[in-house]
Amino acid sequence: MPRINPENILKTALMAAALFVLPLSSAAPVRALCQERQPVPGRAEIRETLDLIKELFESNYESRTFEGQRELSALLLENGRESTGVEQYVLLTESIRIASRAVSPDTAVEAIELLETGFSVNSIELRTDYLKSAAENIATSEQLEAVTRNADAWIESAVDNDAYDAAEDVLLALAQVARKTNSPLLAGITDDRLKNCRMLGREYRRLASSLEKIAADQDDEEANRRVGEFYLFEKGDFESGLPFVARSDSPVAAVAQQELERSSAENADEAVILADQWWELADNNIHVMKHAADIYRSAIENTSGLTERKLLQRIDDYQTAMLQSFNGDVTHAIGPVWNVIWQDGTPEWQRVAFYPDGSLQILNSGREFQNTFMIESGVIRWTSWEGSFVFVVQLEGTTLRFQKFDSKSGELLDQGTATAVTPGR
User: Fold this and answer.
1) How big is the CA angle at 288 (ends 285 and 291), to the nearest 5 degrees?
2) Which of 45, 337, 360, 404 could lock 422 by a disulfide, CB 3.0 to 4.6 Å apart?
3) Cα–Cα distance between 410 and 313 in angstroms, integer?
């Protein structure tokens, strides 16, 4: 995804919100930057073209079934790909409208991308209108999963590009999806993400003067420190933050420079030394602790003895700190830490934790595994790392009920319960 370029920071800052409009296709931003977008056609042209489209596809418009509506939206999209000017604009907008009503996310998303690539449209409005319309018509967990996946990709892209107002608008629309589909867990996660997005947006706006100073003098130490420490300590974006911090008077400047010079082929001992420095400088900052833990994880397979035990302990310490940093409705709803007991009485996992950003962590025999989960109508679901199993989890009072299915046959392989071992705050 696009990242801040320290050598051209002011231009990047000004373009951040604009870059957000095309996050789902890596080719889409390139097309958008290489071709001039057309103005939105006038109302009279739109009306006349829409009448013609309805006449040409009259039999398709007559269908009132969801399947018929999906076929129509896909047909309009297909014609929109090959059209230009006002015809393309109307075909794509009509495809989005019908796909939203029929909850056909893939069609709607492609039509949105094509529309905002070719025309000077309000991209945020397009996306939020799609989410709100889809929320009124979602009927299955699969539809909710697909719509939520689209929204997540847009939110992630917006935050990556520091377009926090855009991310907030999509999060608000996603909150409406959660309400309309009666999904309290999705609502809790969305609320937590919204709070974090607003916090990051406030902090980023305070950097305006520093970004201007760096545009004029990229070696301004104080400005680089403020920008770099925002990315490292507030956002946890080390890829963007390290170049700024390395040119600053920050206490972490030396280790940042060391990491920038780090070879991907370095041995485990060198990786551990780097991670140790970050760990000592973390001062309980969860983002720095995570960064150190990530480096420890990359090195742990090539360590043994006391060094391996130290790395496992520090990874565990990071997990504990992360769990203690939980906040928002989601923590009270689902955990955070659960001990899972399967039917045969053997704990397959020593503990499992669900995080507000949609990630989960499983600790098994001292090893940590990570995955992502999806909320579907109040049910948690994820697929195992190798793709063999699907896990379905539902909250019943203070107990989570787990089911384990074969991903190909759908056969129920095992089930069990989980009880909280660390209560939410």
Assistant:
1) 150
2) 337
3) 38
